[in-house]
Amino acid sequence: MNLTISGHHLEVTAAIREYVQNKLERVTRHFDQVIDIAVILTVDNLKEKEKRQKAEINLRMSGKTVYVESLSQDLYAAIDTLIDKLDRQVMKYKSKVQSHGHDAIKHIPDSYEPAASA
Question: Which residue among 45, 69, 82, 88 is least enclosed by CB atoms within 10 Å?
Fold first, then answer.
């Protein structure tokens, strides 16, 4: 699994990097077929102060790419919300993949004889 954490208008410190990695362990614990994760943390200069911190993630799995973003006043809160959304999406995909298992072909009993058409 490749993990890329980058920042726009923000320096990604070791504490932020470790926080994101610890939070992502929850997602990889639920679903281990993750190929690539790209996290982008952004600080925008918006007039709305409550939506300045933005966290987004692209998670590639076998068969699907999941994109999630979150806005908040605090970067750590944005990361928490992001991981919650991502976890729900991954669990939904996992249940969808597992539910597509088909039942085995039901065997026809030996005593069954097809009706002869006359």
Answer: 45
Residue 105 belongs to what H/E stretch? none
Q: How far is CA 57 from CA 2, 35, 42, 83, 97, in A?
A: 13, 13, 11, 9, 21
Q: How far apart are CA 29 and CA 118, in angstroms?
A: 62
Q: By three-state DSSP, how is residue 35 classified?
A: strand
List domains and CATH numbers for the chain.
Answer: 1-96 (3.30.160.100)
63's enclosing H/E stretch is none
Which pTM value belongs to this model? 0.76
Name residue 45's amino acid.
N
Look at the block and give the residue holding tokens 């993990």. Answer: 3
